Amino acid sequence: MTNSAPHPEDFSLDAEEGRILALFSRRLIEIAALSRSGLKDASASEALEVLRQPALLMDNGGFVLQVNAALEEFADSDIRVKDRRLWIRDVDARNNLQSFIDRMKNGAGTASPAVEPIVVPRRDLLPVILRIWPIERPERWASPDARALLTLNALGPKPGPPASILAKAFRLTPSEAKLASIIARGVAPETAARELNISRETVRNQLKSVFAKTGTHRQGELVALLLQVVY
Q: Which of 33, 71, 189, 205 has the most CB atoms lying inside 10 A of its own CB?
């Protein structure tokens, strides 16, 4: 993890929101599949790896039962698992999580599958979106005490998909594919021009071609499409 926040011009919130929205339906499908499928022959940790993002299973007392490898790599000084609890430095976010745990203890935590996401601020980085997915049929999980699945999404630039794959998927030229890989991180075209050491006019022309070949019209829409290649 880095100790400095990304420069504002290197991060487009609209593009990031587009990326999350594009992936949200897929996450719902994956989580639904996990909650409905029989997992007796698989460990909970194996099931969590299906999500391909930091995730953990929690019991109704707020204790962490299982975490996946993505969460172990993600943990930092602002949010991590400590003494079998999900520890959050930010007081408001920590209290919001505790409020949900208290409702679970009282039997109300699984009343609705929709729980408002918790925004977890970080001191030197963009925030984490913590989503809680109550588990209504724990007997289908390898950990029968599981009552909630928690997923974490760190806002900020993500590595772009490989240019070679984008070239094949959308019939882009090598130059267009390199640009698309950078744009997929949510950066501004001006930043992409500097990284590629080309003029802004060249970037604009290549970007127009990428839009045409991908059938997109805005950068946020393009980012959401390109990131489906790897997420």
A: 71
Helices (H), the chain: 13-36, 44-49, 69-74, 91-105, 163-170, 174-183, 189-196, 200-214, 219-226
Highest mean pLDDT among 7-11, 159-163, 194-198: 194-198
> Amino acid identity of 15?
A
Distances in Å between the alpha carbon of 59 and those of 8, 62, 78?
Answer: 38, 5, 22
Residues 6+ apart with CB under 8 A from 210: 170, 172, 176, 179, 180, 183, 216, 222
CATH 1.10.10.10 spans which residues of the chain? 163-229
Compute the distance between CA of residue 31 and CA of residue 35 in angstroms, rounded to an integer.
6
**Fold of the CATH domain 12-154:** Beta-Lactamase (3.30.450)
CATH number of 163-229: 1.10.10.10
Distance in angstroms (rounded) separating the CA atoms of residues 45 and 38: 14
pTM of the model: 0.60
Nearest-5° Cα angle at 227, 178 to 157: 80
SS3 of residue 117 by DSSP: coil
Split at pLDDT 50, 70, 90, the class of 228 is confident
